[in-house]
Amino acid sequence: MSEELSLNINIKEPRWDQGTFMGRAKHFFMVTDPRNVLLSSETLEEARVITENYRAGITKPGLSEDELWRAKYIYDSAFHPDTGEKMFVIGRMSAQVPVNMSITGCMLTFYRTTPAVVFWQWVNQSFNAVVNYTNRSGDAPMTVNQLGAAYVSATTGAVVTALGLKSLASRLPPIASRFVPFAAVAAANCINIPFMRQRELKYGIPVMDENGNRLGESPNAAKQAIMQVVVSRIGMAVPAMAIPPVIMNALEKKAFMKVSRLLVFATPLCCALFPQKSSMSVSGLEEDLQERIRETSPNTTTVYFNKGL
């Protein structure tokens, strides 16, 4: 008979040390694995039950430690870390590679006319808006009106930025104009992400002590979280949009098909630039929240929060 699985495995945290880049990279390679998109609803539900039961002290008979971790990572790839809700499939980070690869290929191919730029930037920013909302931090819901306003402002701002850069490209050499899609995506990320997560900037995101006890909500923590996500997202676009233009100027589409394979690695590696469970000093929080923490948890000097993806 197999031994009973220990209940002392901490699956509330990733399997690998998140204090190192390699540990975070291993974690995100599991979470962003494109194969997770193909998993059935039954498999996702089974992973949810195994994970939530184990956290409650209930172990499935015959379950091995590797099977437990596999279930935990399937759960993490499909369910929101704060709300526990199943995420919309194309908004999951595991869908980032296949969907982004398709959109990026079209953006790099159809960039010469204004209608094409508008259409593919709108498609790209609509996809980004879904991803940004799906992977937001915190558990506060957004109303339909708030979500609609955020979507319109995010996509409009991003498309207008792309058009401005497109007009600049007409005065640039052909090789330089190839970088317009990347510049547009980078600039648009700086607009789209804050707009889609504007509620966090206004009301804050939950901050916890080292034991996971909720201490309050902080807009300052939201600013740090969103800034880190913007940097990561721009980094994800580099292999597919900043490298291919140099080669594509001579080889056209074939180069993209080769270089786009780097997206498989770019997504987890750029997610790993910062820990998903980010932190900041209590002194960096709002004055009223600092005061509240000093009263309720005087020994706490650092707070932690989910930065989103």
From TrEMBL:
Main localisation: mitochondrion
GO BP terms in the entry: serine import into mitochondrion
Reaction(s) catalysed (UniProt annotation): L-serine(in) = L-serine(out)
Subcellular location field: Mitochondrion membrane
Function recorded in the entry: Mitochondrial serine transporter that mediates transport of serine into mitochondria, an important step of the one-carbon metabolism pathway. Mitochondrial serine is converted to glycine and formate, which then exits to the cytosol where it is used to generate the charged folates that serve as one-carbon donors.
Keyword Hydrolase annotated: no
Coiled coil regions in record: none
Family the entry assigns: Belongs to the sideroflexin family.
Protein name: Sidoreflexin
Keyword Translocase: no
Pfam family for this entry, one: SFXNs
